[in-house]
Amino acid sequence: MKKVQTGQVIEFYSNSCLVKTESGKLNCLAIKNIVVGDYVEVEIIQDSKKHLGNIIKVKNRSSVLSKKNGNKDKLFAANITHVGILVTPEPKTSSEFIDKWILKAIFSGIEPFIINNKIDIDSDQEYLDKLAIYKDINIKIISCSAKFGENLEVLQQFLESKCVLFVGNSGAGKSTVSSKVIGQKLKTNELSNNQGVHTTSVSSLYELPNNIKIIDSPGMRDIELVEYSKGKIINGFVEILESSESCKYNDCNHINNDGCNVYKDLMNGVISKSRYNNFIKFRDN
């Protein structure tokens, strides 16, 4: 057995992790800033009866998801290729939630897509119009009913050769989608006061056939955008950024200014009101 091996972190606990290598799964002490999805070099501990190792190096990441925790970045997962944003007619998913995650994914080097869950529920025109907004800006939308298994095969085909993290508001069916795709219930802890089961307590990476990887990580539901400068926010709204290139002045704030092409496109329906309003809110708040 090689003394130093390369593997991927597939589970992360409070101060340790599980690494999958060519020799099997190794329990390792987690060094600083290790997260699920990381590729690492592990030094095998030879004098132990158990499969143990020490992580000695973290490989370069293709992407990383994090959020601000005070003045520090709290890391959640690495080497994700796609973020699946669950959108449902009931409970209604706000455009603010969707736009936050699209922006977060873009700035993290990850491709966002939308999972239109609960197609077994009737959708009103307002909801259908909301989905159309994202279709118009070329965000991939996959419609399914995780509860009844409808169209899940379409989602699974899309996930081939991808490493994906699902996000959604409470009640959107994230755990149901994940469990149906993975084929097993996710690791959760039961609350002592009989309130049922809460969000995932252990960050895990699940490997499926067709090179599908699903990362399930707690704490990634609610995010803020405080780490991004005002000038950068527009890069998360590709249609507004493109429109702004035709503004009369380079320092245009895109709020009803003379010669503002963004505002003109908003008035002409080229840019959606919800996307514009979220852009202004994220930038100026």
Overview of the structural elements:
The chain is of the alpha/beta class. The chain folds into three domains: 4-58, Beta Barrel (OB fold (Dihydrolipoamide Acetyltransferase, E2P)), CATH 2.40.50.140; 70-216, Rossmann fold (3-Layer(aba) Sandwich), CATH 3.40.50.300; 230-284, Orthogonal Bundle (Ribonucleotide Reductase Protein R1, domain 1). 25% of the residues lie in helices and 27% in strands. The strands form two sheets. The protein has a five-stranded mixed barrel with strand order 1-2-3-5-4. Strands 6-7 form a two-stranded antiparallel ribbon. Strand 9, helix 2 (125-136) and strand 10 form a beta-alpha-beta unit. The longest helix is centred in the middle third of the chain and has 13 residues, at 95-107. The protein starts with a strand and ends with a helix.
Summarize the structure.
The chain has 285 residues and is of the alpha/beta class.
Q: Show unreliable segments.
A: 189-200
Strand content: 25-35%
| Total DSSP E strands | 13
For the biggest β-sheet, the strand order reads: 1-2-3-5-4
CATH class of the largest domain: Alpha Beta
How much helicity do the residues have?
10-25%
Globally, the shape reads: globular
Number of domains: 3
- CATH-scheme architecture of the largest domain: 3-Layer(aba) Sandwich
Rg over C-alpha atoms, rounded to the nearest angstrom = 21 Å
CATH topology of the largest domain: Rossmann fold
C-alpha termini separation: 55 Å
Secondary structure topology:
Layout: E1 4-12, E2 16-21, E3 24-29, E4 39-44, E5 52-58, E6 64-69, E7 72-78, E8 82-87, H1 95-107, E9 111-116, H2 125-136, E10 141-143, H3 152-158, E11 163-167, H4 174-182, E12 203-208, E13 212-216, H5 230-233, H6 238-244, H7 261-267, H8 273-284
Parallel strand pairs: 3-5, 8-9, 8-11, 9-10, 11-13
Antiparallel strand pairs: 1-2, 1-4, 1-12, 2-3, 4-5, 6-7, 12-13
Helix pairs in contact: 1-8
